[in-house]
From TrEMBL:
Top EC class for this record: transferase
Protein name: tRNA-2-methylthio-N(6)-dimethylallyladenosine synthase
Keyword S-adenosyl-L-methionine included in the entry's annotation: yes
Reaction catalysis annotation: N(6)-dimethylallyladenosine(37) in tRNA + (sulfur carrier)-SH + AH2 + 2 S-adenosyl-L-methionine = 2-methylsulfanyl-N(6)-dimethylallyladenosine(37) in tRNA + (sulfur carrier)-H + 5'-deoxyadenosine + L-methionine + A + S-adenosyl-L-homocysteine + 2 H(+)
CDD domains: Radical_SAM
UniProt cofactor(s): [4Fe-4S] cluster
Gene3D superfamilies: Methylthiotransferase, N-terminal domain, tm_1862 like domain
Gene: miaB
Species of provenance: Nitratidesulfovibrio oxamicus
Taxonomic placement: Bacteria, Pseudomonadati, Thermodesulfobacteriota, Desulfovibrionia, Desulfovibrionales
Family from the record: Belongs to the methylthiotransferase family. MiaB subfamily.
Length: 482
């Protein structure tokens, strides 16, 4: 066993995936190499609190790691992310193999800490303090190839305290990253081969509206902080950037200038994930979302006016405390009215310490499951309909990897576990079935000429003209246009 091998297991949202990717690159830059679970010395679990029973899931993964590394006496575990922030050094007592815990703000120091742990066997480290400033990462630690679709953090934390959400407690208060640092990282990624950039934050629409942004503006001698719309324009103007996306926008904070950007910025993709959560004004109020359906539909209409072909996706929580059958019907009606191309829907479950945990009138599990099934049945039908309507269209597909087998798709921006593999290309050498995304973010599989004809990198990162010829359940199949 090499002394400097690591393996990362990632749970949760795209921000966690992005943090893990950065950590992997930073460790590689420090001379570490990736290894499979059971062979790696450093076993990192990047955790998420959003789903049900997050602690139990982490405990079970740590049990798996302990089992897999029982013959490796130097092996140890690292727990990062939201559950690490909540449980903290409690992990040290329960799992002796855990030697580092780090939260969102501590991730920037994790590579140095891991290096120390490798050199000092008795040491344990916890990086759990929230910092007042955005925890900028050391760009020197970030090297190696970049994927065609890259992600760039623009903020950390959230100030909204939605009734059901643990994020403000685990990621801390909102801190915007300096606009110059965001634009610089985007420019470097484009220089190194990225074609598409997704700007990431818990609530990107409130970028620039926090104490950290004010402090930066004052320090720079600027009159006011850079707004999200201004940041979008600055990033979109980078030469060579073919596609720009962002996630996640909160409807209450979306500015008219951000909506207008969909009509004026050619490389801003016509797809927006706009979390609705419920179609009932009564439930939205109980959730503390600070918008109602009239406001949400007004945003939808203005987005469609700015960019008529825009596709929307959303998040829905089914069975929030007190949700009646009529509230749920209102949600279904809202989904039909907007016509979401996709949605991520979950049954409500308590998160300890949140306001919703204290609310009465909790629904029973069977009722929540039945409502969720109804909602997902509608969504599946509608998504298939959307995909079928795209057959025959000419589009451009950004190829991001070889399919493991013809017709295989990549997952959506969805919760789940993401394990290992940071090299960007999957599949067998010489295979000809590639996967990619169209401007709407739809997964498209396309058969390409032999890989060697795509140059030394194969077809990775090429944007190719495709005609859609078939719609599958969650993806499209296209043929290369001459
Ligand atoms: S906006 Fe609401 S749901 Fe989203 S991270 Fe902040 S508190 Fe959580």
């Amino acid at each position: 066993m090499s002394d400097r091998t690591f393996h990362i297991l990632t749970f949760g949202c795209q921000m966690n995936v992005n943090d893990s990717d950065w950590l992997a690159r930073a460790l590689v830059a420090r001379g570490f190499t990736e290894a499979p679970l059971g062979k790696a010395r450093v076993n990192i679990v990047n955790t998420c609190s959003v789903r049900d029973k997050p602690e139990q899931k982490v405990y079970s993964v740590l049990g798996r790691i302990r089992q897999a590394t029982r013959k490796l006496p130097d092996a140890f575990a690292v727990v990062g992310g939201c559950v690490a922030q909540q449980i903290g050094s409690g992990f040290f007592t329960r799992f002796p193999q855990v030697r580092l815990v780090f939260g969102g703000d501590g991730s920037s120091m994790a590579p140095q800490a891991i290096e120390r742990l490798c050199a000092e066997p008795g040491l344990r480290v916890s990086l759990l303090d929230f910092s007042e400033e955005y925890p900028e990462r050391d760009a020197q630690l970030d090297s190696g190839p970049v994927p065609p679709s890259a992600f760039v953090n623009i903020m950390q934390g959230c100030d909204n305290f939605c009734a059901y959400c643990i994020v403000p407690y685990t990621r801390g208060r909102q801190k915007s990253r300096a606009a110059d640092a965001v634009v610089r990282e985007c420019a470097e990624l484009v220089d190194r081969g990225a074609k598409e950039i997704t700007l990431l934050g818990q609530n990107v629409n409130s970028y620039g509206q926090d104490a950290e942004a004010t402090r930066q503006a004052t320090a720079a001698g600027d009159g006011k902080a850079v707004s999200f719309a201004e940041l979008l324009h600055r990033v979109a103007a980078l030469p060579g950037l073919a596609r720009l996306r962002f996630v996640t926008p909160h409807p209450k904070d979306i500015a008219p200038e951000v909506i207008d950007a969909f009509g004026t910025l050619d490389n801003l993709c016509p797809r927006l994930h706009l979390p609705l959560q419920s179609g009932s004004d009564r439930i939205l109020k109980a959730m503390g979302r600070k918008y109602d359906m009239a406001r949400y539909m007004d945003i939808v209409h203005r987005l469609k006016a700015a960019r008529p072909d825009i596709q929307l996706s959303t998040d829905i929580i089914v069975g929030f405390p007190g949700e009646t059958e009529q509230d749920f019907e209102d949600t279904l009606a809202a989904m039909r009215a907007v016509g979401f191309a996709a949605s991520f829907s979950f049954c409500y479950s308590d998160r300890p310490g949140t306001r919703a945990e204290m609310l009465p009138a909790k629904l029973d599990a069977a009722e929540k499951a039945a409502r969720l099934a109804r909602l997902q049945e509608w969504q599946n039908d509608y998504t298939e309909q959307c995909l079928r309507s795209m057959v025959g269209l000419h589009t451009m597909v950004l190829l991001d990897g070889m399919s493991r087998k013809p017709g295989m798709t990549t997952p959506e921006l969805q919760e789940g576990v993401h394990e290992g593999v940071h090299d960007g290309v999957a599949g067998t050498p010489g295979g000809e079935s590639w996967q990619g995304r169209d401007p709407y973010g739809q997964a498209v599989n396309v058969v390409m000429p032999p890989r060697t004809q795509g140059g030394p990198e194969g077809w990775l990162g090429r944007i190719v003209p495709v005609t859609i010829v078939e719609a599958k359940k969650h993806s499209l199949r296209g043929v290369l246009r001459a």
